[in-house]
């Protein structure tokens, strides 16, 4: 009898630890304007995407970008090796959303589970960006071109942030969107290829 009780206690302890360690798994989201790589995979517009085709909302990694967070070369997958296909530049051939420099744009997130939020930030690549190479911090402008603070509020299931695309951009570029969760150690990442 004592062995069974001990086994039950150990089983419950493992279950509780599992629940605590996956506490942030209930918060998910992705960008669909401009269309992110994970959405192109989920739609079947791009093949050989691995697990992300079933989980476009799950690109979650450590927060604190750009001083912390995912390592260079793993930014589009949020540092999550399960979704490494998002970091593959595919020779610069990811589909791209057509945009215009200086254009007013509605950047949209779909949140399949909402969470207390610090902010949403949008970074764009600089003039040295090579779309045929994995994204690194050195490829991005040093400051986000749009920051939307939330101060711990919970956003709606669909949020659109109006902003202006930087002037002077041309050719193929990439926008890295970062949704920083307030009450966990994580953020969600989305890479959207754009064509100016």
Automatic annotation (TrEMBL):
Region (Disordered): 57-81
Cited CDD domains: LPMO_AA10
Pfam family, one: LPMO_10
Gene3D superfamilies to which the protein is assigned, alphabetical: chitin-binding protein cbp21 (2.70.50.50)
InterPro entries hit by this protein: Cellulose/chitin-bd_N, GlcNAc_Chitin_IntDeg, Ig_E-set
Signal peptide: 1-27
Domain Chitin-binding type-4: start-end pairs: 28-194
Alphabetic keyword roster: Signal
Protein name (database record): Chitin-binding protein
């Amino acid at each position: 009898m004592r062995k069974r009780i001990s086994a039950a206690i150990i089983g419950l302890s493992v279950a509780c630890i599992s629940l605590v360690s996956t506490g942030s798994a209930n918060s998910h989201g992705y960008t669909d304007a401009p269309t992110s790589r994970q959405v192109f995979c989920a739609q079947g517009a791009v093949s050989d995407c691995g697990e992300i085709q079933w989980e476009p909302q799950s690109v979650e990694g450590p927060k604190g970008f750009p001083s912390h967070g995912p390592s260079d070369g793993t930014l589009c997958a949020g540092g999550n090796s399960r979704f490494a296909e998002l970091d593959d530049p595919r020779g610069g051939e990811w589909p791209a959303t057509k945009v215009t420099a200086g254009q007013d744009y509605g950047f949209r997130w779909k949140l399949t589970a909402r969470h207390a939020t610090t902010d949403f930030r949008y970074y764009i690549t600089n003039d040295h960006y090579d779309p045929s190479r994995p994204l690194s911090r050195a490829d991005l402008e040093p400051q986000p071109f749009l920051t939307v603070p939330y101060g711990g509020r919970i956003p709606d299931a669909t949020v659109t942030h109006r902003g202006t695309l930087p002037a002077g951009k041309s050719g193929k570029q990439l926008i890295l969107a970062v949704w920083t969760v307030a009450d966990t150690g994580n953020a969600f990442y989305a890479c959207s290829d754009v064509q100016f």
